[in-house]
Design goal:
Radius of gyration: 15 Å
Shape: globular
Helix content: 25-40%
Strand content: 15-25%
Distance between the termini: 17 Å
Structural class: alpha/beta
Order of helices and strands: EHEHHEHEHEE
Strand order of the largest sheet: 3-2-1-4-6-5
Number of helices: 5
Length: 153
């Protein structure tokens, strides 16, 4: 179940966190999706969908949403190819979690800075994809550390 977050008129949506949702070791990151949704009780969360569709995320969240209630800010899905919407999401997020080199490059490009403009922290997680898993943020934002395990679908 997708929980829409309509922005207030004339006010750009702000996200507490924008997290890339992409397959890790060929698996849908079920635990990450659930943790991201649960974290949305503290503020809006953007799921940046990278080679994973909204239906897949909905199937993961269907049993979780009723247990959380509908009075939380929730999540918004943004496709990694969404251009303008993606860049607005990147700019408005306090923290960003990126797993793929593609998303890291898009974040860097969106801010118009070199990698040095961000605080990068490599997370060593044996369950993660062999690609570099990075946590990053603009200098003014808070770095969030996240670990996840994958479950098969």
């Amino acid at each position: 179940m997708f929980v829409p977050l309509p922005p207030e008129k004339g006010v750009p949506m702000r996200f507490r966190i924008a997290m890339e949702i992409t397959k890790l070791q060929g698996q849908v990151p079920v635990e990450l999706i659930i943790k991201g949704y649960r974290f949305s009780k503290y503020g809006a969360v953007a799921f940046i969908l990278h080679d994973i569709g909204p239906r897949t995320v909905n199937r993961v969240l269907d049993p979780v949403v009723p247990s959380m209630g509908l009075d939380i800010p929730g999540v918004k899905y943004v496709d990694i190819t969404a251009g303008f919407d993606l860049y607005n999401t990147i700019f408005s997020a306090k923290s960003i979690i990126a797993f793929s080199p593609l998303f890291r490059a898009l974040v860097t490009q969106a801010h118009g800075f070199a990698d040095e403009a961000f605080s990068f922290k490599q997370v060593h997680n044996t369950d993660a994809d062999p690609r570099t898993m990075l946590l990053m943020r603009p200098r003014h934002a808070r770095l969030v550390e996240c670990t996840t395990k994958t479950n098969g679908e």
